[in-house]
Amino acid sequence: MRLAVLLLIGFLAAPILSAQRSVPSDGQWLIERGDHSGTVQLSVRYGERGYSSNWSRDVPLREFEGLTAADMGGSGVTVHFKIVRSAGTLDCEGWFERGKGSGHFTYQPNPGFVAELAKRGINAPTDWEQFQMTMAGVGIELVDELARQKYERPTAMELARMATHGVDLEYVQDIGARGYHLGDPGSLVRMRDHGVDPEFIASLESAGYKNLSAEDLVRVRDHGVDGEYIATMKARGYQFRDLESLVQMRDHGVDPDFIESLNSAGYKDLGAEDLVRLRDHGVDEDYIADMKELGYAPANPEELVESRDHGVDAQYIRSLKEAGYERLSLQELRRARDHGVTSGFIRRVKARGYGNPSLDEVIRLRDRGLE
Fold it and tell me: Could you tell me if 210 and 189 are in contact, meaning their C-beta atoms sit under 8 angstroms apart?
């Protein structure tokens, strides 16, 4: 899976207008073996005027002019290579030791890139914007692809923003191939920022949710509804035409584990609203197990919801049992709780010479303010 551009510290620190940033003329590079065959992990470090930035991503080895796999595998090999992008070039030199290399680079912007942007009606980028595009590999091919998909013509600032947010040629092509031609370049950035990528869209499509709007994609992504969640919910009989019900269940913490715990407790085939209500009111596996152990396993889980809402839990039930009230119904327990009947109050009543009063008598004494 393609790694997103990581622009740390400098790009994600306090907001600084690009026009105020000076372009580094040089910096350091570090290369290690990549996660995939034919790639390397390239990290670039640079700084100007008191700030420093790191940039890192997997890059195909073919993008390095003058660097070979043999050079990388050598011992103490001195290297000189270039990373040539549409917007500029990094001229690098250094050395490699068994697959790991480091050294310094100098940066040269490409004036021809600015000229090509002008031919397409796009204003000249600032030096910093052009450097950002160089680092992210944003080139004329991306501009032409946006035009082909009938996007609004981006400004240089918008192109730089796309660069720093990981919206590259491959992303635009992949999204377009799935039918998403959003018109506004800013919408691409928003989708990318929220983790909407081709793999996520494919996972939803495989689960039966196709042709969703960009807003719906962002919404379900933000709420953690992905293909895996949908598939596991489907396996338990929960399938919805609209995604809103899935979003609601996900938001309220209804997941396969929660459903499985209810099934194990004997509460099966519950509707989505019932699941949400139980979850919201704290009727979970532990509460059900505690109540069951004390002999309370009502056929209708709504009784457990009401008991939970009234503060009737295992601790309260045990305290009343210790006070001599062992066979109370859930309704009686809720009534006692609502009237403030506690084991301590019962002991004080008995200490006043009332013997073994019924629950109704205890409630009457409590209501009359006996202390």
Answer: no
Nearest CA among 108, 105, 110, 40 for reference residue 79:
105
Q: Letter for the amino acid at 41?
A: Q
The first and second tokens of residue 126, run together, are: 């600032």
- SS3 state of residue 362: helix
Tell me how far the alpha carbon of residue 330 is from its chain's centroid.
41
Dihedral sign, Cα of residue 114, residue 118, residue 119, residue 121? positive
Q: What is the pTM of this model?
A: 0.72
Residues 252-304: tens digit of each pLDDT: 999 988 999 898 889 988 988 899 999 999 999 999 999 999 999 999 999 99
Mean pLDDT value across residues 156-170: 94
Task: Compute the distance between CA of residue 80 and CA of residue 66 in angstroms, rounded to an integer.
Answer: 7
pLDDT at residue 12 greater than cutoff 50: no
pLDDT tens sequence across 217-232: 999 999 999 888 988 8
- Structure tokens given for 225: 């509804």
Alpha helices in the chain (DSSP H): 69-73, 111-119, 127-136, 140-148, 156-164, 169-177, 185-193, 198-206, 214-222, 227-235, 244-251, 256-264, 272-280, 285-293, 302-309, 314-322, 330-338, 343-349, 359-367
Listed residue (127, 128, 163) closest to 143, CA to CA: 163
User: Is residue 66 within 8 Å of residue 82, measured between CB atoms?
Assistant: yes
103's tokens: 């050294």
Residues 330/307, Cβ–Cβ less than 8 Å:
yes
Residue 279, CB half-sphere, CA atoms under 13 Å: how many?
Answer: 21
Q: Where are the alpha helices (DSSP H) in 44-155?
A: 69-73, 111-119, 127-136, 140-148
Q: What is the mean pLDDT of the chain?
A: 89
**CA dist., res. 160 & res. 132, Å (int):** 6
- The answer to whether 59 and 44 have CB atoms below 8 angstroms apart is no
pLDDT band at residue 40 under the 50/70/90 scheme: very high
